[in-house]
Design a protein that fits this description.
heterodimer; A: about 550 residues; alpha/beta; TIM Barrel; 2 domains; nine-stranded mixed sheet; eight-stranded parallel sheet; B: about 425 residues; Dimethylsulfoxide Reductase, domain 2; five-stranded parallel sheet; 13 helices; globular
């Protein structure tokens, strides 16, 4: 039995309404406990007086595993050369900046105080690979969202006007078969449309073959996820990614959920107006106003930060369109297995480029204009807006107005003139940062034992030395505990542990396999039984990760 | 009890003996050797029969003498520990086998190289130079209307390609599979499987495959509406080339198929670059995709695991403590030829026919491998998909198949062996 005491820290735990209160925290066998029982002997005590204590951070949208990420790694040796991770007695060597190896990613996440990371775009057929890569991402917990919406099976069901219950069964079957935590839709129906040579698809535009619109797909899938009682709302990468004027389709996407919960991801890339001389402007005010008004809507930002990165997305329609902007000039675009696709396009965001500078400002505007920190999440859509290692810098931009304005003064002047960022006075508090990086992601993913520090929670705990320079504070925590084990000290990994895999297992009628099995036999490239990932297989391909299923409460 | 319950036949078995990884095999596990009774091909039948035995009596050897596995692990650990640059080659492994070798190679400060890397690194260079537009097998099965096989017949390496993905009874979209147009670029190919079920012959552009760069240049010039001076490039009249270019433009979902291993090694990246030029030109107005097939002997298991763990493709040196990628310098054949390695460790659990290089002092392979010379250390291993479960990446990168355990053996897996050696290595270090 291991008993740990963290003594005298300043605890910030928004899930339990605790804001900077001095408390002792006890950990017994990897879990937080209220107090010690008679006979419990503290095996390690850490004096953390004066230090800020939070639960481990959660990145709810980060491309850390799966086919497209591995294409990015293979494509960009020039990315890796200057960012090696050296082998030590306890860690393996690895490397990479915007497309790091899984080992580098896991160590770096832990070293920044992140203890859970979720891959947001798992093509069902590619779920094994995604889980294998996440299994090789050390220390952090992982999980993923399965991509539906351009899969021919669903589109055929919509054409056949199958009832919602049958569609719910299919969606639940996908969650079980792919061992995932949620459902993602990417450019709804657009990936399929691209295979029929359509190059754009608006929310009410029909897929050329199926006649189905993105709105129908959004309505059906958001309802399925809701009725199955999956905690995480439908995770939506909206139509028209990166297109000037796409703010209208983003607002239409919110409406398509018809009041049901919906999560709009990397919303910065979907908040563009078409005003001004260059027909590109900020739609942040309209988007923020809509989020503030629609309580069913949550969003993560997908902040752009300047520098070299690589964009990796399931949205091959958009990525093909953007491949001309690649820097360096190369790109990979794939159609994949009657389910989806992917596109990998390296990109360099430049602060003197009008569009890039305005993208940077738009992301910050959204952060600062959305009132409720429980409904807006801190992401760069790693690596699409910037690599996750830029999070401490992003936190400084949000918490320090004078720093933000000094940065604003350095960007493209026309972009600065088009942004209202200078007038936004808000500075995020540490409490709000803890909400958007811990409490809120845990809540929206249904991770009841993560993202907080109450008794019963998993002991994923981070201790920071307070520093007025928030970038310095958040880039190097003093202590990080994962499930009660000290894994990082002074910003360096001191112990490597294996994270858990989070999944949901909603109830459904297994009779749906009578429809799915012949479909696989006739049209797919594998048999249905070889597509499904069992619990045992998941743990084996995840390298021994523990499976943590989260409860679903049926709502139909 | 039903017949099924007592049957020794296992259905829906995935096959690890070529890159297609067909998963519709039925394998009879009742006999001394495994027998493919449905859904196989000659390669699958031979592989399951040859390797699917129990390996009774097989053990580790040092200098030809029987030793315990522990002694063999310790000896390999000692050798890689004292080596300046151990080279791990072969790598015909499942995902976990590769994971195990990666742990070992990093700890030992070595280099990992697959038996097909001489081709593989050149394919990878295309991704690093220009990227690609590609598709996967299920898309081909349902969408392809024009399939151009570039310098390959596919079937020599993967015999069920047409059966499983081209001449299907039914596809989801137009045209009907039997109406698909098949074109071969290059001569000396087995074009018979390209004949449609109703007897329509494929089109063959018959020329020496070593002249593929000229053929693809011709096609690219015509697609770019550039003049071609030769009236009959490669001895084929220009009108036929023009008709092919026109057909590609008119197709709704054409697919250009290649197998890098069928190109001349020096032309691999040149040819794939040229194929991608065709594909990119066509995608401006219609859909056209490349389909690179490969993946035999766990080639993609090795390349995928290497890339995701370290960031780099294979041929990366871990000698300095950080990964250093140099696909020319770190080629195992070059390192051996130049005397830059003193310790070559051959690891192969999926292939028992390929001979290790003569310099391999350690061989970790199935006991059915008939070695031409006795290595200093031999460790027998079981085979994924035969003796133990595992995972296998299909050659189009479209799917990863679960491999089954069909027959018990007392032998360890390559992953177990690698982990045991790594543990011994760390003991030596400590």
């Amino acid at each position: 039995m291991s008993v740990i005491k963290l003594t005298g820290g300043r605890v910030i735990d928004p899930a339990n309404g605790v804001d900077d209160q001095v408390r002792d925290i006890y950990v017994k066998d990897g879990r937080i406990v209220a107090s010690l029982a008679d006979g419990d002997k503290v095996s390690a005590e850490y004096n953390v007086s004066g230090r800020i204590v939070m639960s481990g951070a959660i990145d709810m949208h980060t491309h850390i595993g799966g086919g497209k990420v591995n294409i990015a790694r293979e494509m960009l040796p020039e990315d890796h050369r200057d960012d090696p991770v050296a082998r030590t007695e306890i860690t393996r060597s690895s490397c990479g900046y915007c497309a790091p190896g899984t080992l580098a990613a896991g160590y770096r996440y832990a070293e920044m105080g992140y203890t859970s990371c979720f891959e947001p775009a798992i093509i069902p057929m590619n779920a094994r690979q995604a889980h294998m890569e996440m299994g090789d991402t050390p220390i952090v917990d992982t999980g993923g969202y399965a991509m539906l919406g351009s899969d021919d099976f669903l589109l055929r069901m919509l054409v056949a006007k199958e009832d919602q219950q049958t569609i719910n069964d299919y969606v639940a079957w996908i969650l079980h078969s792919t061992q995932t935590l949620g459902i993602k839709v990417v450019n709804p129906g657009g990936i399929s449309a691209f295979k029929f040579n359509q190059r754009k698809l608006d929310v009410d535009e029909q897929n050329a073959y199926y006649g189905v619109t993105p709105r129908q797909i959004l309505r059906t899938l958001s309802r399925a996820v809701h009725e199955l009682g999956v905690p995480h709302p439908l995770h939506v990468h909206a139509s028209n990614l990166g297109v000037a004027g796409n703010v209208d389709s983003t607002l239409a996407t919110m409406d398509a959920a018809e009041g049901l919960p919906i999560h709009l991801t990397h919303i910065q890339f979907h908040s563009y107006g078409s005003e001004g001389d260059r027909k590109f402007s900020s739609g942040a005010a309209r988007i923020a106003e809509a989020i503030n008004r629609h309580k069913n809507v949550t969003a993560d930002v997908g902040q752009v930060l300047f520098g070299q990165t690589v964009t990796a997305s399931g949205d091959n329609m958009s990525q093909y369109r953007n491949s001309g902007l690649a820097s360096p000039k190369k790109s990979a675009v794939m159609d994949i297995e009657m389910e989806a696709g992917c596109g990998v396009v390296p990109f360099k965001y430049k602060d003197q480029n009008f569009v890039n500078a305005l993208q940077w400002a738009i992301g910050l505007e959204i952060f600062l204009m959305v009132d409720d920190p429980w409904r807006i999440f801190l992401t760069t859509d790693h690596p699409n807006g910037a690599p996750f290692t830029t999070y401490p810098h992003l936190i400084k931009l949000l918490t320090d107005r004078s720093f933000r304005n000094s940065m604003l003064d350095t960007i493209n002047a026309d972009a600065k003139a088009m942004s209202n960022l200078a007038s936004l006075e808000r500075e995020y508090s540490l409490y709000e940062i803890a909400i958007m990086t811990r409490a809120a992601p845990a809540r929206i993913l249904g991770l009841t034992d993560r993202g907080h520090l109450a008794p019963g929670a998993a002991a994923d705990i981070v201790v920071y030395k307070e520093d007025a320079d928030r970038e310095r504070m958040f880039e190097k925590p003093e202590l990080v505990f994962k499930d009660g084990e000290l894994v990082v000290r002074d910003g360096k990994v001191v112990k490597v542990v294996r994270g858990n895999t989070h999944v949901v297992k909603p109830e459904f009628d297994r009779g749906i396999e009578k429809k799915i099995e012949p479909y696989f036999r006739q049209y797919h490239s594998v048999r249905m039984n070889n597509f499904k990932i069992s619990d045992d297989e998941l743990c084996e391909c995840g390298g021994g990760s523990k499976l943590i299923p989260h409860a679903c409460r049926k709502r139909s | 009890m039903t017949n099924e319950a007592t049957s020794s036949v296992v259905a829906e078995v995935a096959c690890p003996f070529c890159g297609l990884a067909c998963d519709d095999l039925s394998v009879d596990t009742g006999g001394d050797a495994l027998a493919v009774v449905a859904g196989g091909c000659p390669k699958a039948q031979a592989g399951f029969a040859r390797m699917g035995v129990a390996h009774a009596g097989a053990g580790a050897r040092i200098a030809g003498k029987a030793v315990s596995f522990e002694e063999a692990y310790a000896e390999v650990a000692r050798r890689v520990k004292t080596s300046a640059l151990p080279v791990f080659s072969g790598m015909a492994l499942d995902v976990n086998g590769m994971r195990g070798v990666m742990d070992l190679a990093d700890a030992a400060g070595g280099v990992v190289d697959h038996l097909y890397s001489e081709i593989g690194w050149r394919s990878t260079r295309v991704v690093q130079d220009i990227g690609y537009v590609t598709t996967t097998l299920a898309e081909v099965k349902n969408r392809a209307d024009l399939i151009v096989l570039v310098g390959t017949d596919v079937v020599t390496k993967s015999s069920r390609f047409f059966e499983r993905y081209v001449w299907n009874d039914e596809a989801m979209f137009e045209p009907a599979p039997s109406a698909r147009r098949i074109v071969y670029l290059g001569g000396d190919l087995n074009t018979a499987p390209g004949r449609s079920p109703d007897g329509r012959e494929p089109e063959v552009f018959d020329f020496d495959c070593s002249r593929m760069p000229e053929a693809l240049s011709t096609l690219n010039a015509l697609l770019a509406k550039q003049p071609v001076r030769d009236a009959a490039p490669l001895g084929i009249e220009i009108a036929r080339w023009q008709a092919l270019a026109d057909a590609l433009r008119a197709a709704k979902y054409s697919v250009l198929v290649w197998m890098a291993g069928d190109f001349q090694p020096s032309q691999v990246d040149l040819n794939i670059n040229a194929i991608m030029a065709v594909v990119r030109t066509l995608n401006v107005s219609t859909r056209c995709n490349g389909l690179g097939l490969g993946g035999a002997d766990g080639e993609l298991n090795a390349s995928m695991v290497h890339a995701w763990q370290t960031g780099y493709p294979m041929r990366t040196s871990f000698a300095s403590g950080i990964p250093l990628y140099d696909p020319v310098h770190n080629g195992s054949a070059r390192l051996i030829a130049e005397g830059e390695t003193d310790t070559v460790v051959w690891v192969s659990a999926l292939n028992d026919t390929k001979q290790p290089p003569a310099e391999a002092c350690v061989v970790i392979a199935p006991p059915t491998l008939k070695l031409e010379r006795e290595p200093e250390v031999f460790i027998p291993v079981s085979t994924p998909g035969v003796h133990h479960v595992g995972h296998f990446f299909r050659g189009d990168k479209g799917a990863t198949l679960p491999l089954r355990a069909l027959r018990a053996t007392g032998l360890p897996s390559a992953a177990t062996v690698a982990a045991a050696i790594t543990a011994k290595l760390k003991e030596v270090s400590a």
